[in-house]
Amino acid sequence: MTGYPEDDIKNAAEIREWLTKLISEKQEEIERMKITLSLIDSVLKQGSFKTAANLNLNKKSFSNEKSSVVESGIKRDDISPIQKNQEEKPQALETRQIKRMKDNTVIAQVEVSKEGIEIIPMESFNFNLETPPFRSFFINRILEGMKSKDIDKVKQGQLSETDVISFHTLLKDNSENIIKKIEIKNYRDKERINEIFNTVAWVFTRMLEKSEK
Predict the structure, then answer these.
(1) I need a surface site. Which of 43, 48, 63, 100 has the fewest CB within 10 A?
(2) What is the C-alpha to C-alpha distance for residues 11 and 14, in angstroms, rounded to an integer?
(3) Helix or strand or coil: residue 146?
């Protein structure tokens, strides 16, 4: 029986490797979408946050008027001394709760203002910066991915450099990489709010599962 030429076999092997990798990536993407959908369904059933349609993200909300001092919706006992000493805080348009699915315990607050998004873990939960998939997925893939898209728009003249999304993680004082707060600026649209909320809800859930093993 006549075999295939060596070049054909080599090409077939390379195509097979590419297809295998592509299938794996698509399966991973589908699994992430399923997890996100499950989180959305769970939150909607619990009625723990307003729908995007109820977000007051109209032009008036995003005007340059000065923010007033408001309560964030978090109990004062849950706010660190540094936060208590702040005289002004961006006006929250919406506060969402991230809940642990197995017992409905609130594990973090997500505050959305016209200036940005703040993700604040509850004091009773310690999320370590180095626990997967915080860096690998939430920071490097989701937030860095958004930043990369913004930079591309800057290069194309579609976006100002000052409007590129930015983010940083604040750690608790005298702690071993324990997250105090995540600040995200220039999110710009409602789709990003929802993507960030759903992703960090899944990431925090996974981090708790790993830390409890």
Answers:
(1) 63
(2) 5
(3) helix
- In Å, the largest CA–CA distance within the chain is 84
Structural domain that includes position 175: 51-211
Q: What is the reported pLDDT for 42? A: 62
Query: Are 35 and 68 members of one domain?
Result: no
When the pLDDT of each residue in the chain is averaged and rounded to a whole number, the result is 77
Q: Based on the structure, what is the number of domains in the chain?
A: 2
How far out from the chain centre does Cα 138 lie? 6
Same domain, 180 and 157: yes
Pair 62, 32 in one domain: no
Interval 133-164: pLDDT, tens: 999 999 999 999 999 999 999 999 999 999 99
Asked whether residue 184 falls in the same domain as residue 126, the answer is: yes
48, 105 in Cβ contact below 8 A? no
pLDDT of residue 7: 72
Residue of 75 and 31 predicted with greater confidence: 31
**Strand arrangement, sheet containing 92-100:** 92-100, 105-113, 116-121, 179-185, 166-171
